[in-house]
Request: fold
Amino acid sequence: MSKQTSFFTSVGRLYPHVRPILPRLFMGLICALLASIVALTIPQVLRVLVNNSLQPGGSTDAVWIAAVVILALGIAEAGLVALRRQFVINPATTVETRMRVTLYGHLQQLTVAFHDRWGSGQLLSRAMTDLSFLRRWMAFGAIMLVVTTLTVIIGVGVMFSMSWQLALIFLAAAVPIMINSFRFRRRFSLVTRLSQDQAGDLATTVEESVHGIRVLKAFGRSREALENFNGQAEELRQTEIAKAKQQAGFTLVVTLLPELALGVGLVVGIMLAASGELSIGALVAFFATAAVVATPVEFSGMLLAMALTAKTALDRHFEVMDTDNTITSPDQATVPESVKGALRFEHAGFGFDDGGTLLHDVTLDIRPGETMALVGITGSGKSALLQLVPRLYDVTEGAVTIDGVDVRDYDIDELRKIVAVAFEDTTLFSSSVRDNVLLGAPDPSDAALDEALDVAQAQFAYSLPDGVDTLIGEEGLSLSGGQRQRIALARAIAAKPKVLVLDDPLSALDVNTEERVEARLREVLHETTTLIVAHRPSTVALADRVALLENGTITAVGTHTELLAENDHYRYVIASLDAGPKDLDTELDELEEAEEARR
Ligand SMILES: Nc1ncnc2c1ncn2[C@@H]1O[C@H](COP(=O)(O)OP(=O)(O)OP(=O)(O)O)[C@@H](O)[C@H]1O
Reply:
């Protein structure tokens, strides 16, 4: 999944996002830098103090002045640190929010095929944890990394100006630190990537088990789910330990070596002072400066780790952002004056990315206003075929057309206004019944809501605690499967589409309710071209004609009676759909009689 890029390439991609806030980040950097310079100035005051005042006969006034100057510098340092925070916090949170919103927008655009492949936890962790981390890095880590580097460079320069011999000792300590930081960077990048990916997988598991809590409980699988979660959590723990160990190892080096240099430097410094090559003031100032320089060096482990984690967060973010949306509007979209709703599959073929061909040479003609049922054995590709109409997936060969225009030639938003869908597996959003039903309605009025609820026989909504304003969905009131399906059906009806695509939307209804819904649907569907997957003969009865999907293609189209009379496979499928033990011959006779009577 991940592509190796250099640190600067990855971080460079942040530039368009941070460009608007660069002035404030820059001001934050200046404040942090000034704070460091102030910190480096304090030893120089000490030097003057030691050399001039702490000598026999030195003036006590100078001590007071030095104390006041040091106090003032200390206050200035603290003030500058506070100012740095003030400058960066607001813009960093703005960038975080903008990137999060852009990511969310991109996720909405990406194809269903993309979402089939990606675990929800991986996307969740990218949208939440990774971006929060980036914010912290922008506001603190990045600035401190620059300031630390500059402080060390300036500090070492100052140290050289005071005593090149002592400064060389400290510089010698820098060589193993740099070698170590190089190794650390390589190893830590790998382990931090692993940990962020594992955290994403863990989030997916939590999400799945919360969604599937009823199934887990009902099948008594809670213990196994816990064991599985425990295993994953343990893997993440091991990775975090490996991360912490690497960081601790590096921190040990960056803490120990400056201390060692300090010890050796002290001995050499005292010798130099004794031989008169170095003044006492310069010696004191040298070690005070060395202490100021040592602190950021000690922090460098943490800052480097933060930088590497931020790089990984950026890489993970751009993996999603770089994924192209392959289902888009054409440059020159066809804008129909009026849509009649003639739906045709013309030698259409389709296969999922990770599978072979599922559908091939599908040819089917559905007249405007006609209701066509789609029947086939389970797994034959009925749902996949339906999803080609609103372009949730694109055909891999042939075409699907509406009024003779390839669905790929319509503006995608326009197409999805023309086509509405309701799936067997309903998704309701955490908002009111009203908002859920009127989600795609061109006219979001009370009248449209009432009509849609009436057709879908979802009048129960009026009796909910707050009526149609009751909050449903994941965070709201739990509805029964049949109630959810009726709300989803009402949503599709309220969209007033020219083409309605229904994937067995009545499967969870009891027989009486289904009958009532069908009666009302029949009234409204005469104007709407409808393709409906049927898993029950009663749904088939709703249709003018039936199409049989067999071995990935449409092998027969006709009325239910015709197919029942002529097609063995259709009889087999209908028999397997029907839950009740029915005598097909008797049903056929009944249907023939009814047909006879109608003529
Ligand atoms: N996202 C996917 N990626 C890969 N294969 C898939 C995907 N979704 C479905 N399939 C496979 O494609 C085949 C057809 O699935 P589809 O859901 O279209 O069948 P169906 O006829 O609607 O089945 P059912 O009647 O059981 O609802 C199945 O073998 C299924 O495993």
Observations:
- The pocket of adenosine-5'-triphosphate is lined by residues 116, 352, 354-355, 358, 376, 378-384 (CB under 6 Å).
